[in-house]
Amino acid sequence: MDVERELPGLEGVDEDFLFNEPYVVPFGGGAGATVMAPGPGDKNPFARYEVGMSEVLETNVFAPFKSKMEWCIARWAKTRGPSATAFNEFLAINGVLDALQLSFKNTKELNKILDSSLPTRPKFVRHVVKVDGEEYDLWLRDAMQCIRVLFGSSDWAADILVAPEKHYVDQTKTTRVYGDMNTGEWWWRLQVCQSF
């Protein structure tokens, strides 16, 4: 007995598509492609957003560190759990700093590099809202700054939907299915208007 198909309201052949992957028709062309910079005379209001170190990254993808090895050591020191004291003791071992040729000699200097060189998250801003004579604190971040950070980070690249798609029940494309925002009519129409 198939328990999934016994849900109320999901009876008959017509609802079988709910249990299958949709047939996807991508918009095609350059939809969702990365735009590095607006071209000459480009009237597109969505110019490239920079999140910090774009010039440095063109020459060194491991910036603000000078090499992949230095980046790996810094990542290990900050994510794998050695205490600051243990990491400092490791770096203080005679010959370690010379052998590794690091641009930092202790945890304090590593933290300074991270705090001053890497892009920061948008700051929270406090607003006071009055409701029925009572004052309430409202903390928020600028939505556009948050979007710039999300779109500027490679961590989220595989999860962000940036191109419209049409989803259908099957290859006949007779019954359209709507789910995420990028499957709606608006994204498709807007992409047609913005195509250049």
From TrEMBL:
It comes from the Eukaryota. Pfam families: Plavaka (PF18759). The lineage of its organism: Eukaryota, Fungi, Dikarya, Basidiomycota, Agaricomycotina. It comes from Rhodofomes roseus. This is Uncharacterized protein. InterPro entries: Plavaka (IPR041078).
